[in-house]
Automatic annotation (TrEMBL):
SMART domains: cNMP. The chain crosses the membrane at residues 406-425, 445-465, 486-506, 518-537, 641-658, 678-699, 719-741, 761-786. The lineage of its organism: Bacteria, Candidatus Handelsmaniibacteriota. Residues 595-625 form the 4Fe-4S ferredoxin-type domain. GO terms for molecular function: ATP binding; iron-sulfur cluster binding; metal ion binding. CDD domains: AAA (cd00009), CAP_ED (cd00038). InterPro entries: 4Fe4S_Fe-S-bd (IPR017896), 4Fe4S_Fe_S_CS (IPR017900), AAA_lid_NorR (IPR058031), cNMP-bd_dom (IPR000595), cNMP-bd_dom_sf (IPR018490), P-loop_NTPase (IPR027417), RmlC-like_jellyroll (IPR014710), Sigma_54_int (IPR002078). This is Cyclic nucleotide-binding protein.
Length: 805
């Protein structure tokens, strides 16, 4: 025997060649690799010391059946064919030993094949059980669901090609799987294939395999294709219009029984295709061949969108609650009535049942009790991607960390101390010269600064408001967590308008700017409302649905220079725990019932930065932006916003008129104001607030009869576009009471060329401030109206259809 050395990776004997030697492995390790139709061998065995190979070809005279490759540096003793034949002829018992060895190898191979087949069957059974459990039955009692159930039963008895039509998320794959698992093919494979992933290549395609062509000088294997893998079962082709035209031709021939597999054997595969449009839409634009449409048109199931059978939504939602609560191991039993109403009121035009399931799954994750509340249900799509401006959170990390430590807690503590001092001044400090320090701080410092801040930082005041601090402190001590009444959420805009009217009315009737006690009682009233609602309801219900000042801040913040928005891609790809809403260790969830992923407006964001602290993925962005961008690019303009704009505009006019008559000592209206202040102020404010609302109501009567929602959308967004100018007017009105601003004068001197005398022009700084603020408000409003003209009508309808109050 001749000793031989083999390097790792060396082919010792090659498949298909005549055998010339018997090898006995003395050291190392080799692999037996079999080539079928593929170019790369499959390792079927590993041989070690004292094993031999090459004997089968020597005994039978057939070519070598497999490659033997050195897996590592190895050594063998080789016996050539002549010596081997002489040895076998002289010693017959050697042949018997080879026969026993081959028998043992065949037995081991049979056991391995049987084990692999058993594992394959168990895996197939496991997959079938998982799929059948996931797609057990249709949910719903609407006639639509019953009709679909009948169609499923009928199609399950057939083997004909089937087309399932329906919008995105209507359950086309569910219907296909139900048909498969109720058919005679239920124990065979069900393969789902996205047609957009199939591409025609030189050798063929993944659906049908190769074209039986070979490139000269290069053997080409016939690889398995989806038709082979789905043999005896069902092949689900999703979005059939995305299939390449060349592959569509092969599919047409297959469906017409003209395409056969190798060897002439017909493939036994049922084809089910899905499409998001109608049959007439398939041939438009050359997306599908007419022959393919004809082949699929005999058996069609059309699934209606969810908005056409909304009666099934409560049952579907309950099903999804049970499903995801079990998966997440959470004790969530269902949805309250308000949550169900919210789900039923939405139209699900983005993804139908899939969109409903995603909303319910998110609500199960966010649920704090056994029953899902309406505040935990978020519907609609995240805000569309748009230029975000400069993200202030991208400033140097030490600066951001310092700012987050100071704001809002440290600032809120300072404001609380000032607030306590103001209350003390209002009730206990003496009034000197007809003025009280508390009233001066409230009406001449705080109010002007507060309204001016809306232009720059939106509702940031709400994050440091002493009323919210008192409410949060009381809530930590005791919180009944009553459910927020539906009427409160549905009518919150009108409650806020009524509350703000009451504040302005009390301010003007009682002359609070000069009455310390009246000012103190007003502050205590607001403080008491915040504390009581915080004890009774969850989070900051007062700030979100009731607070009059918060409502004004909500409207004015639409014109702000900053916004808090999500990084939608991060939310969609990384968010698992929804910490922005639920909170995290040491950080409370959003007090305003917001989820960062769905933030598209400043109206209900207090800029408390809890989401920034809680989000582990860094999704929130605090952006500098063009003022009022959300009024033309966002989804926040609703009828209530337009009515609030008209209400504030009229109320502002009433306040300006009252202020004018107060400063005019003569005239019948001035005398009437002094003599009948209660009646006169009430009448002026009520009339000035009611007239714009009445005008809007008359203007929208014709809109309500219009079948096109885009017309109403355009109207209300144009009304909301006046919010910056109304905010500017409100700022100017409050600046007129700013401490000492009306007494400051500026003088400009100049000398004409034709005269040696110096002349001067004096003007009030208050007038300059008025001019600057009003000019800014007018410019922003004009810019919003100009941008709205560029919005296409189709985009308007897309943004407004299904939008509720």
């Amino acid at each position: 025997m001749q000793p031989m050395r083999h390097e790792g990776g060396q082919v010792i004997i090659r498949q298909g060649e005549p055998g010339s030697r018997l090898h006995v492995l003395t050291s190392g390790r080799v692999e037996v690799r079999v080539h079928t139709d593929g170019e790369e061998g499959v390792a079927v065995a590993t041989l070690r010391e004292e094993d031999c190979f090459g004997e089968m070809s020597l005994l039978t005279g057939d070519p070598i059946s497999a490659d033997v490759v050195a897996a590592e540096d190895s050594e063998t003793l080789a016996l050539d064919r002549g010596t081997f034949n002489a040895l076998v002829a002289a010693n017959p018992h050697v042949l018997r030993e080879f026969a026993r060895m081959i028998s043992r190898r065949l037995h081991a191979t049979d056991v391995a094949i049987g084990t692999a087949r058993e594992r394959e069957q168990e895996l197939a059974r496991f997959v079938r059980e998982q799929k059948s459990e996931r797609y057990r039955d249709l949910v719903g009692r609407h006639p639509v669901a019953k009709e679909l159930g009948g169609q499923i039963e009928r199609e399950a008895q057939l083997d004909s090609p089937l087309l399932i039509q329906g919008e995105r998320g209507t359950g086309k794959e569910l219907i296909a799987r139900l048909i498969h698992f109720r058919s005679r093919r239920k124990d065979a494979p069900l393969l789902s294939l996205e047609c957009a992933q199939i591409s025609e290549i030189t050798w063929g395609d993944k659906l049908f395999g190769d074209y039986h062509r070979r490139e000269p000088g290069r053997p080409h294997p016939r690889a398995f294709c989806y038709m082979d893998l789905a043999e005896g079962g069902t092949l689900l082709l999703k979005n059939i219009d995305a299939l390449p035209l060349a592959v569509q031709e092969r599919l047409v021939r297959f469906l017409n029984s003209q395409l056969q597999a190798l060897g002439g054997r017909r493939r036994d595969v049922r084809v089910i295709a899905t499409y998001r449009g109608g049959l007439t839409d398939m041939t438009r634009g050359g997306q599908a061949l007419p022959d393919l449409v004809n082949a699929l048109s005999e058996h069609v199931i059309a699934i209606p969108p969810l908005r056409e059978h909304k009666r099934d939504i409560p049952e579907l939602a309950s099903h999804f609650v049970r499903k995801h609560a079990q998966r997440l191991n959470k004790q969530v039993n269902g949805l309250d009535d308000q949550a169900v109403i919210q789900l039923v009121s939405y139209d699900y035009r983005i993804a139908n049942v899939q969109e409903l399931e995603e909303a319910v799954e998110r609500a199960v994750i966010l649920a704090e009790d056994e029953t899902i509340k309406a505040e935990e249900v978020f519907l609609g799509s995240p805000p569309a991607a748009r230029p975000m401006g400069f993200n202030l959170l991208k400033l140097p990390r030490p600066v951001v960390q310092l700012a987050l430590r100071l704001f809002p807690r440290v600032v809120q503590g300072f404001v609380a101390v000032v607030f306590a001092f103001v209350l003390y001044q209002c009730f206990f400090a003496p009034t000197r010269g007809g003025e009280n320090l508390g009233t001066l701080l409230v009406w001449s410092v705080w109010w002007p600064m507060l309204v001016l801040s809306f232009f720059f930082v939106g509702r940031a005041w709400c994050a440091v408001c002493p009323m919210s601090l008192a409410g949060t402190t009381a809530q930590r001590a005791i919180n009944l967590k009553w459910r927020i009444p539906a009427w409160l959420k549905d009518c919150d805009a009108y409650i806020i308008m009524a509350g703000f009217f009451a504040v302005i009315w009390a301010e003007e009737v009682a002359g609070m700017r000069h009455d310390a006690r009246a000012t103190g009682f007003l502050l205590l009233f607001i403080l008491g409302g915040a504390v009581v609602t915080s004890v009774v309801f969850p989070r900051r219900t007062w700030c979100r649905h009731i607070c009059p000042l918060g409502g004004v801040a909500s409207l004015c913040s639409t014109s702000a220079l900053v916004e808090l928005r999500p990084t939608v891609d991060i939310c969609a790809a990384k968010c698992k725990g929804h910490s922005c809403y639920k909170g995290d260790q040491g950080v409370d969830g959003c007090p305003m019932f917001n989820h960062v992923m769905f933030m598209d407006s400043n109206q209900h964001c207090a800029l408390c930065m809890n989401c920034v602290r809680a989000c582990p993925n860094g999704s929130p962005q605090l952006n500098l932006r063009p003022p009022a961008r959300e009024l033309w690019a966002g989804l926040s303009a609703r009828p209530e916003v337009g009515r609030f704009v008209a209400f504030l505009m009229g109320l502002l006019v009433g306040q300006i008129l009252i202020q004018y008559w107060e400063r005019q000592p003569y005239g019948p209206l001035s005398r009437l104001l002094n003599e009948r202040r209660f009646v006169f102020v009430t009448g002026v404010l009520a009339l000035s607030a009611a007239l714009p609302l009445l005008s809007l109501w008359l203007a929208t009567r014709r809109l309500r009869r219009s079948p096109d929602p885009a017309i109403a959308a355009q109207f209300w967004r144009k009304v909301a576009a006046w919010a910056p100018l109304v905010t500017a007017g409100f700022v100017c009105y409050q600046l007129s009471f700013a401490l000492g601003l009306d007494s400051l004068q500026a003088t400009l001197g100049y000398q004409p060329l034709d005269s040696g005398a110096t002349r001067s022009v004096s003007f009030s700084l208050l007038s300059v401030a008025w001019f600057g603020v009003l000019s800014a408000g007018l410019a922003v409003t004009a810019g919003v109206l100009w941008k709205l003209r560029q919005v296409r009508e189709g985009d308007e309808q897309k943004r407004w259809v299904g939008e509720g109050p």
